[in-house]
TrEMBL record:
InterPro entries in UniProt: Anti-sigma_ant (IPR003658), STAS_dom (IPR002645), STAS_dom_sf (IPR036513)
Short name of any one Pfam family annotated for the protein: STAS
Protein name (record): Anti-sigma factor antagonist
GO molecular function ontology, one term from the record: anti-sigma factor antagonist activity
Originating organism: Micromonospora echinofusca
Protein family membership: Belongs to the anti-sigma-factor antagonist family.
Length: 126
């Protein structure tokens, strides 16, 4: 765990196929996933999303995820419902093109915003 400026970086989970990193700031939590989200790794993926401290915005960076199975989609829906029940918003950042196709094919892009952060940290809908 380390502290970078006003951000706390910690709660890392890693196995051979999935790495999760959580960065906590005052008003947002960013979870960065790298690897594959499937039946073998979904427990670690879901655990990282559930363990993220409550903040107004939970940003999930999917740029390093090359595979998102149906179990991963289900975990995203559950996380979205949990974050929304706490008064927050789940936002997906920079999904890999393959993952973005899954999100669009399932219609999840209509439920959970997919955004691309600009240099000035504003979010632009994709």
């Amino acid at each position: 765990m380390s502290v970078a400026g006003d951000r706390f970086v910690g709660m890392r989970q890693r196995d051979d196929r999935l790495h999760m990193e959580i960065t906590v700031a005052d008003h947002e939590v960013e979870v960065r996933a790298t690897g594959e989200v499937d039946i073998a790794t979904v427990a670690a993926f879901r655990s990282a999303l559930w363990d993220a401290p409550p903040r107004p915005v939970l940003r999930l960076d999917l740029s390093g995820v090359g595979l998102l199975s149906a179990t991963g989609v289900r975990a995203l829906v559950a996380a979205h419902l949990r974050v929304r029940a706490r008064g927050g918003e789940l936002v997906l950042l920079r999904p890999d093109p393959v993952v973005e196709r899954v999100l669009r094919a399932t219609g999840l892009h209509r439920v959970i915003p997919i955004v691309d952060p600009c240099a000035d940290r504003e979010l632009v809908p994709c």
